[in-house]
Automatic annotation (TrEMBL):
Acyl-CoA oxidase/dehydrogenase middle domain sequence ranges: 133-233
SUPFAM superfamilies named among the record's database cross-references: Acyl-CoA dehydrogenase C-terminal domain-like, Acyl-CoA dehydrogenase NM domain-like
GO terms for biological process, alphabetical: fatty acid beta-oxidation using acyl-CoA dehydrogenase
Protein's recorded name: Acyl-CoA dehydrogenase
Residue span(s) of domain Acyl-CoA dehydrogenase/oxidase N-terminal: 9-128
Complex and partners: Homodimer.
Keywords: FAD, Flavoprotein, Oxidoreductase
Coiled-coil stretches noted in the UniProt entry, renumbered to this chain: none
Keyword presence, Nuclease: no
Molecular function terms from GO: flavin adenine dinucleotide binding; medium-chain fatty acyl-CoA dehydrogenase activity
Pfam families xref list: Acyl-CoA_dh_1, Acyl-CoA_dh_M, Acyl-CoA_dh_N
Source species, domain of life: Bacteria
Amino acid sequence: MDFGHSPRASELQDRMRSFMDEHVFPAEATYDRQLAEGDDSHTLPPVMAELKAKARAEGLWNLFMAHGDWGAGLSNLEYAPLAELAGQSIIGPEVFNCSAPDTGNMELLALYGTPEQRERWLRPLLDAEIRSCFAMTEPEVASSDARNIRTRITRDGDSYVVNGRKWYTSGILDPDCELIILMGKTDPEAPTYRQQSMLLVPRHTPGVTVLRDLPMFGYTDRLGHGDVLFEDVRVPVENILGGEGEGFALAQGRLGPGRMHYAMRAVGFAERALRLMCERATERTAFGGPLADRGVVREWIARSRIEIEQVRLLVLKSAWLMDTVGNAAARMEVAAIKVAALEVAHKVVDRAVQAHGAAGVSDDTVLARLYAITRALRIADGPDEVHLRTVARQELAQYKKKTEPTTGAV
């Protein structure tokens, strides 16, 4: 592997780093204040609209999109460090129009959408004129196993009719949300991984009801995590994404790059937490000297730096493999980074919380929020156990081939 970044990637990193320091970090407090003072906690704060306009004007826009002429055309390896930089702020990814769930939805539309679907949905998403959400997880079943999904998509003439219930449908509470990409079953009798399909559902279609906004560890996100009921929701057959029975394959295609994005943002979380821990250790005095002189605090800092460097290299390797041999061939590494990056991020944030004492569990720093996010993301996009299962299965497959008995006459 070549551990150097391309000239273009290095230049973008320098520009994004400057933009984060000059605009994003200073705006965090204003963002929180405007959310708290607004009539609707899901409405885009004015400062975010300003930040988006500045980022777009500086060419720091849609950098995640690697498909066709839709985005910057960066490779996964080139985009990875940019995702890390944006991830150092909770509001960072949205500033650059690189936040979930829109990123994954835009990739789906770019790869599998018809020209009409792209014109109606992808173009305004790329321009940040609208937002979208992804409805897959269901409250009644273990949705990490797509075979369990119960939401039905039934063909009725020139329409599909949707009935079911989804929850943690992230983004649906944003007033700008205009599109739901929904995963449901079109044929329960088909082969296991040909039962599911994806459907493009306009947000305000009759029969779509948001029952409640779900918090994560007590925090309410601006985009919202909806508990959503679909009752006889009717959309045209032209709204199928890809085709009937292709939902599972589309979901796998969506999740590969998405997990790399999650992992690199997690490295950004960890870097932010480590910086706060070091600042606290040098500024805070206890028992006759700065915290930085205490052996245990030095160990926290040293272990955090080592772990961050290790996981960053693993994520970069995964991104490199995705670029060179494809997402399918990099499946084990992609599964591994989803586990490793969030574990490391959560561990580093936990140490930073401890170093801050009471301030660490308050809202005076970003640490409590990062603690909640890093813990929740170990469930979102597939729990750790699913990814560990994938890694173990790939690893054991090598040994099964070695131990298979030979056939033929003895």
